[in-house]
Design a protein that fits this description.
This protein has about 500 residues and is an alpha/beta fold. It has helices at about 15-25, 30-50, 55-65, 80-85, 140-145, 185-200, 215-225, 240-245, 280, 300-305, 335-345, 360-365, 385-390, 405-415, 425-430, 450-460, 475-485, 490-495; strands at about 70, 75, 125-130, 150-155, 170-175, 205, 230-235, 260-265, 285-290, 315-320, 330-335, 350-355, 375-380, 395-400, 420, 445-450, 465-470.
């Protein structure tokens, strides 16, 4: 909107300027644009009163103090009643009317929705796609919405995408689903979204992949629309694209595959007329078929496709936990894929990919060739570039504030860690309080920079301690992890 911020270092430290801008862009939510517009209108109204300078400044101060929370960089648009109170004679001394929650976007003037009376205007609900698992694939807009949310309703597979640096005051509601187990029915999730938004909270519904690709996002959007709740869709990277790419499988390739079909493999087991036309898919040699939720249904899928004429030798792959440090890929044929997957211990969440481009996986498998592929490493946030260096080397990085907050604990616990990098005794001590987490089980390595940190970790009972040289920089830390002893068992197994 009309608000512009500038950060400069007189050319002396552009790397700091870039990071400060990114930090501010992530922290300042979209409500600041409406807040600035409201401030412009308020200034015009105050100037029209022709007040003295002190009276004018007192009203400006009242506007700012009542609508901005400096510690959290949150703002809201004031209600019409507040504006009227501040503009009235003595408005610089009165407390104003009923205040809306900070962070709530409220139009000026406020027009109550039909059937809502004079209560708070509903907060925006953002239906956000978290991507296929790698938190780095979260979109810029998705991160902005998460950092400016009052409440987040997240699925189990979306937990790794929660920014660990969320404010502690953000409400976190886990409604996780997994195969064959839905502890929170969809109707209750819908009701929760309506209830949170109706109270004025800016709410994010964080879903794995993309909200509109087998994510039931459209059902939730329809519920919100019927309830008169404003909502938006923030698309995410769906597993068919993200997991396949990280397995080295292009879903299209000139001259080989010119169509992509996404299916839910659960349909294959229905006996009352499935919606998927497996017979038509089997007849298209220039297409890629990607199946979601397909591990248990794969035998039925393979049987239907082969019965309809798909050659048994058609290349096929299973990708489990794609894009994450735990990614597993098996490549076979449509006839043998299920047996190959069972032998390899492939478990959900996984997708299957069937089509001619699967044979390119061996040549294009870039994901596991990175030196730290398979590592999921924790690190306390510092502006030294270590997290980025680890990410470029292939590690899945969980970068957290110190001390840990609720969102950081959720992100850490979303999957097992293979190690935590500790740059000093104070970081060893800070992590000690969290050692009871399942993801910080005894086998996790304490990768300690300096002898003092390593000795403290051993004294506290860390079973595996890797000691790095004192004052090691990001590149040296990455090199030491790559070549040092104590590589994670998961990584060693992948390399074997």
């Amino acid at each position: 909107g009309a608000m512009k911020l500038a950060v400069a270092s007189d050319g002396g430290a552009p790397f700091v300027v870039r990071r400060l801008r990114q930090m501010l862009e992530g922290r300042l939510g979209p409500e600041w644009a409406e807040w600035m517009d409201a401030a412009k209108r308020f200034r015009q109204a105050v100037r029209a009163l022709a007040l003295s300078r002190s009276e004018t400044e007192a009203r400006y101060e009242r506007f700012f103090a009542a609508t901005v929370e400096p510690e959290r960089l949150r703002a809201r648009v004031p209600t019409a009643d507040e504006i009227a109170t501040w503009l009235a004679p003595g408005g610089d001394e009165t407390g104003g009317g009923e205040r809306a929650p900070l962070g709530q976007v409220v139009a000026l003037p406020v027009e109550p929705r039909a059937g809502q009376g004079s209560g708070p205007r509903p907060g925006l609900v953002s239906l956000v796609g978290a991507g296929p698992g790698d938190p780095g694939l979260l979109t810029v807009r998705a991160r902005q919405r998460l950092l400016s949310a009052d409440a987040i309703v997240y699925d189990r597979l979306a937990a790794p995408a929660l920014p660990p640096d969320l404010c502690d005051e953000v409400e976190l509601h886990c409604v996780g689903k997994e195969a064959g187990r839905h502890p929170v029915p969809q109707q209750e999730i819908n009701a929760l979204l309506v209830r949170l938004a109706a109270s004025g909270r800016r709410t994010v519904r964080l879903k794995g992949g993309d909200p509109f690709v087998y994510g039931r996002g459209s059902e939730e959007a329809e519920t919100l629309r019927r309830a008169g709740i404003p909502y938006e869709i923030v698309p995410g990277v769906t597993a068919a694209i993200g997991a396949a790419a990280c397995a080295g499988i292009p879903v299209t390739h000139r001259g080989e595959a010119v169509r992509v079909t996404l299916v839910t493999a659960h349909e294959s087991a229905k006996g009352n007329g499935p919606q998927v036309r497996w017979d038509l898919l089997a007849q298209d040699p220039h297409a890629t078929v990607v199946g979601y939720m397909g591990v248990s249904s794969l035998p039925e899928v393979a049987a239907k496709l082969q019965a309809a004429g798909m050659p048994a030798s058609t290349p096929a792959a299973l990708v489990s936990q794609g894009t994450t440090a735990a990614q597993r890929v098996v490549v076979s044929t449509i006839a043998r894929l299920h047996a190959t997957g069972v032998a390899a211990g492939i478990r959900p969440p996984a997708i299957f990919v069937i089509g001619p481009t699967v044979r390119r996986a061996a040549a294009l498998d870039w994901f596991v060739s990175r030196p730290l592929s398979g590592e999921r490493l924790g690190v306390f946030a510092r502006p030294d570039g270590l997290a980025q260096a680890l990410d470029v080397a292939g590690a899945e990085v969980v970068e957290t504030p110190r001390p840990l907050g609720p969102a950081a604990r959720v992100a850490i616990g979303a999957a097992p860690l293979t190690g935590w990098i500790l740059r000093g005794v104070e970081e060893v001590e800070a992590l000690e309080e969290e050692r009871g987490m399942p993801s910080l089980e005894p086998g996790v390595r304490a990768i300690c920079v300096g002898r003092a940190a390593a000795e403290r970790a051993r004294a506290l009972g860390w079973a595996r301690v890797q000691e790095l040289v004192e004052d090691a920089g990001p590149e040296a830390i990455v090199a030491s992890i790559v070549h040092g002893e104590g590589r994670s068992a998961a990584t060693a197994a992948r390399e074997a």
